[in-house]
Fold this protein.
Amino acid sequence: MNEKELPPHLREDNLSEETKTLISSLPWNKDFIGNLYKYKGCWYYPNTLQGVLNFEKGFKPQETDIILASFPKSGTTWLKALTIALFERLKNSNSSSDDDLHPLQSDNPHGIVPFFEFNLYLKSSTPDLTKFSSPRVFSTHMPFHTLRLTLKDSPCKIVYVCRNVKDVFVSLWYFRCAHLEKEVDMKSLFESLCEGVGSFGPFWEHVLSYWRGSLEDPKQILFMRYEEMKSEPSAQVKRLAEFLGCPFTEEEEEDGSVDKIVELCSLRNLSGMEVNNSGKTFNTVPYFTFFRKGEVGDFKNHLTPEMENKIDMIIEEKYKGSGLKF
Ligand code: PAP
């Protein structure tokens, strides 16, 4: 594949000399996109790793920061939209008129809440963060054990969204096919996921790092599940609002504010917006590729019984004794 066709975070053209030296000592692998390097237990494409290293070097947390974390394809876009809408409602209660465009109508959730490693820190360890007002909301796909080293003892809040790995896999396959504009071999993507070798993998360690973190400190980490957000959206949005310190008032609950946010952030509504059909991320990924079916259990239309069995066995082994169930 021609490197120049890839979004910047998947390429290998932005590495400092220091990073080149570092990666020459790291475990190495390769997939259909390019080289992967294992850093602190997690696999990264080279430029993404540069973003992680820049973040580690330069990020200074503030106490009020909010970090939205996930393994790719677990509900990141949705969680970002809900968080944006929850804070926006606080601003809007008195000051705005009906003609004001909601932020979600003028930009995609990824444009409003950038990733540390793909966007803000991709090229520099000292990006300009002055445009973020408090609470600053950021996102990441890094595992918690990496994130926590940079956050040190900061009390900033982390929301992690987790999704059934089988649906994550199917979603990832569609996403890769869409942005590479070719049909990616499903079997080899499946094998890499099972072996844990893939961008931000292994999946199991990723989920477990946040799961354990949330058990240790439930005030700092909220562990959410895509499946619960689908089956009881209002309850989950209220839970998110409480954790973020902006709970719904009784009055709001009575006037249907919760349902309005659920509706505003629904897949149907967001994917129909002009901005999400025409724009691209900082990394040139078209916004529309973040919206597809949004169903629980779509894996049943794609995985063979053998594939399902294989994943079930891995899940059982990896999550044994952790209290985490799918
Ligand atoms: P990312 O990690 O690359 O940002 P992410 O948003 O986590 O991607 O995952 C995309 C999935 O979330 C897609 O799932 P699917 O392929 O199974 O359909 C996408 O459809 C789904 N999704 C995006 N927005 C929403 C939403 N508002 N509600 C529910 N699901 C959504």
About this structure: The chain is about 50% helix and 10% strand.
